[in-house]
Amino acid sequence: QVRLVESGGGLAQPGGSLRLSCAASGSIISINDMGWYRQAPGKQRELVAAITSGGSTNYADSVKGRFTISRDNAKNSVYLQMNSLKPEDTAVYSCNALIISKTDWGVRRNYYWGQGTQVTVSS
Questions:
Q1: Confidence band for 47, pLDDT divided at 50, 70 and 90
Q2: What is the dihedral of CA 74, 19, 96, 114, to 10 degrees?
Q3: Could you tell me where the beta strands, DSSP code E, fall in 14-90?
């Protein structure tokens, strides 16, 4: 079983920082694209940032210059450094990864989601 487990959410003041982590575990052969999504109450889920296995990154316009996505392939992990936080960044943040894994019947290529972590930006 492949699992993604996030950590690092919580409460921050406007202008503050938080760092999210997401670690994948299981019978993993390789991980392709990894990303962070968020969903605020009453809104659709949106892509915040993504990173390829080669390290190329992509950001939502609303977070460019404030958030940084990175990954550690040796640890099967992806991170999101969030600086200059704003109240509108408040949401549940979830990591997502395209993972190739071993199964009892062969190889599986599938997208996996973490359970989500709450980020609240408020004074």
A1: very high
A2: 100
A3: 18-25, 28-39, 46-51, 57-59, 67-72, 77-82
